[in-house]
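Milestone M4 deliverable, item 7.
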Amino acid sequence: MVSTQLPDLTPKTDKHKIVIIGGGFGGLYAAKTLGKNDAVDVTLIDKRNFHLFQPLLYQVATGSLSPADIASPLRGVLSGNQNTHVLLDEVQDVDPESKTVVMSAGIVNYDSLVVATGVSHHYFGNDQWKPFAPGLKTVEDALEIRHRIFMAFEAAEKETDPELRQAWLTFVIVGGGPTGVELAGAISEIAYSVLKKDFRKIDTTKTRVILIEGMDRVLPPYDPSLSVKAQQSLESLGVDVQTKSMVNNIEHDLVTMKQGDQQVEIRAKTIVWAAGVTASGMGKVLGDRLNAKLDRAGRVIVEPDLSIENYPDVFVIGDLANFPHQNERPLPGVAPVAMQEGQYVAKLLKERMNGKEIAPFRYMEVGSLAVIGQNSAVVDLGFVKFSGFLAWLVWIFAHVYYLIEFDNKMVVMMQWGWNYFTRGRGARLITGEKDLQSGFKLYQDYAEKDSKVNIKVEA
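Output delivered:
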């Protein structure tokens, strides 16, 4: 039962009440579409006051863009929707009997509920690795990774021990999906191009960027031919791609991976996790309270209309949803899927109110894109696959097109244009109070060890 001590924040209206949890791609596109329907009242709840364009988050982490360039205030985006209320809060529970969403500061009643809270990092039962290998899902994650990347070069500039200096100049990315590939390419460009003339005591071209992937190729969901081209592009940038390699331990600044029967240790100051995701906590809430079926990653297995079995008024969309009703595998957790799901649910609810039903959801494939570096990307549009400069242009215009606000589009285009011609990254600020001495102390400890690092990387 819902606590009566919490204030009731439900809008006072007789309209059909729709509550959306999560302001990501799915939730925002559902809210924007429903904003055109005067017959409903919409409440959007998010623990952040902004929508984040996650596909470009890696560019914040590598200093190409600032957080504000890829974020849009939710209230600003939805200010024209007079039927939409935005609440900054975190959902704690859902009561399907009373049709109530419980937040930390109050409750909201619903007639229809849309859950779009996404996913978070998944360390496959090794959460102790998280402090040493942050993932990339939030602005805070991006700023932390940016701090580690650029602080590593600063620390290397002051290091007198060659072995320890190389440890500062070694970067490991775990996971060869789109995020891992994009990060590896960007870090390599930083080392070999952007910072090459900025330091006096270190040679940044001695940097080692190592991409570790457990499968036999990078970008496993892509066509094998594109995976080959992506790996070739990465290697041309100086990235060492280690496939068929499973990370089995991360301690401080030491990565241990298994390649066949061989154990390989890599000493690296900067480690980034891009290997897996798990459902947000709302997946478990829906499993416990609505008996929703969950997959191994905790995502909700939805019906063909994106609702939860036995609860036709509760929908799950975006990365939190496992939609197994199209093709041989569930739909991928990418932005276009979430956008289309949000628009579909909005249309479905409108038609239901008019006493009509619509066909089950079907994702219209718009293609897969991944950028490797400047002038290099891979694109799979289904009917055609290509890579190189043309693919890079397609990647640029596709991402600018999907940015939410016009000023974001303009700022990003101008920043990319400036970076392209100057080879610069103007957002490479080191922010946050960090104790450099603690990092040096770790390496002093490592220096006392007799063990040697076994790694197949060309300097």
